[in-house]
Amino acid sequence: MRSEVEKGVVELAMFKEFVKNAPLELRNNVVVKNDPIPDPDQRIPDIYCELIEGPVYFELTEACCENSVKAIKKANKTGETQTFWGNDVSEDTVRKKLNKSYTVSEPIELLIYTNGRTILPDDVIINRLQPILESRGLGCFRRAWFFGKKVKMLASTTD
Fold it and tell me: What's the pTM?
């Protein structure tokens, strides 16, 4: 598991790379990584940015298989061959995100990204996530994006 500081650095880097590849345009290069707020009544998404279409927040989550991550770390440390196993937790994570609410008035978008910590190909992850978004809706999110090898909009309430 990453510390909150490490997670924040990764999220900001992933978001900047996402914006370079997405059909979105930043206004004045405004991107701010929000620090976690200790007050549980104040929920603010991970990233604030200004797009040409207006200000927006992004909540980020990584498509990840923790057991495989642990096996990879162990293999890197020991040099031993490891067996990769476990479930990608992306589906459960997205379900949890869809139930959250935030204390901001600007639109919020969900970004699910890969960063080398899952063994599933992008199309498999996408095929598992889209039915969840179709059946449960987007919750408080305006759009849901996937960023792996490419950017794909998974769902939108603005269509």
Answer: 0.84
* Distance in angstroms (rounded) separating the CA atoms of residues 22 and 16: 10
75, two tokens: 């293999």
What is the chain's pLDDT, residue by residue, as a tens digit (159 residues)?
A: 567 778 889 999 999 999 999 999 999 999 999 877 667 677 899 999 999 999 999 999 998 865 555 555 555 677 766 554 455 667 888 999 999 999 999 999 999 999 877 778 899 999 999 999 999 999 999 999 999 999 999 999 986
**Can you give the residue ranges of every domain in the chain?**
4-156
- Alpha-carbon dihedral sign for residues 84, 85, 90, 96: negative
Rounded Cα distance between 126 and 143, Å, is 14
Q: Which CATH architecture has domain 4-156?
A: 3-Layer(aba) Sandwich (3.40)
Q: Strands across the sheet with 151-156, in order?
A: 26-33, 47-51, 54-62, 108-113, 143-147, 151-156
146 φ/ψ angles, rounded to the nearest 5 degrees: -120, 135
